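I had to read the description of the data format several times before I understood it. Each protein is reduced to its one-letter sequence and a matching series of backbone shape codes. The format is easy to grasp once an entry is in front of the reader. For illustration, here is how one protein appears when written out as sequence plus structure tokens:
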Amino acid sequence: MTATYYCHGCAADRGNLVSIQTGSLLDTDYQLGRYMKHTVPDPKYNVQSVFQSASTQAYEDYIVSSSLSGSVQVDGRGRKNIIWAAGREIGFRCENGVLQHPEDVVKVVLSTDSGKIHAYSQSSTQFSGSCCTDCGKDVLY
């Protein structure tokens, strides 16, 4: 199952972007758990992406910046995510607690349940060549 991508403008036109309420991104136990997973390296995870900063403000800024500028990925199961190229290293991929490589994209998991919206870092190489289905623009512009 392959993903479909929409640039920010086309995603907005299609209604694929949701309003994200700042100040409520760590309100649920689920969100707090996701925040901890993606800010504190833990060798219990086989694969983990970890932001460089554990600051709650930085985490919130990543989510807000993504929602204001990012593109939308609709995966093969119909789930929507925002992807945003931060333009710099923002985190690392860890495997069994060992740093593997830097990451420079924020991925925000959108959910119909606002209490499950969360973010993690990924590498832009995963999205190389991905273009908007509607207009053809590179999704990591």
Notes: The CA atoms of residues 22 and 115 lie 12 Å apart. The chain is about 20% helix and 30% strand. The first helix runs from residue 8 to 14.
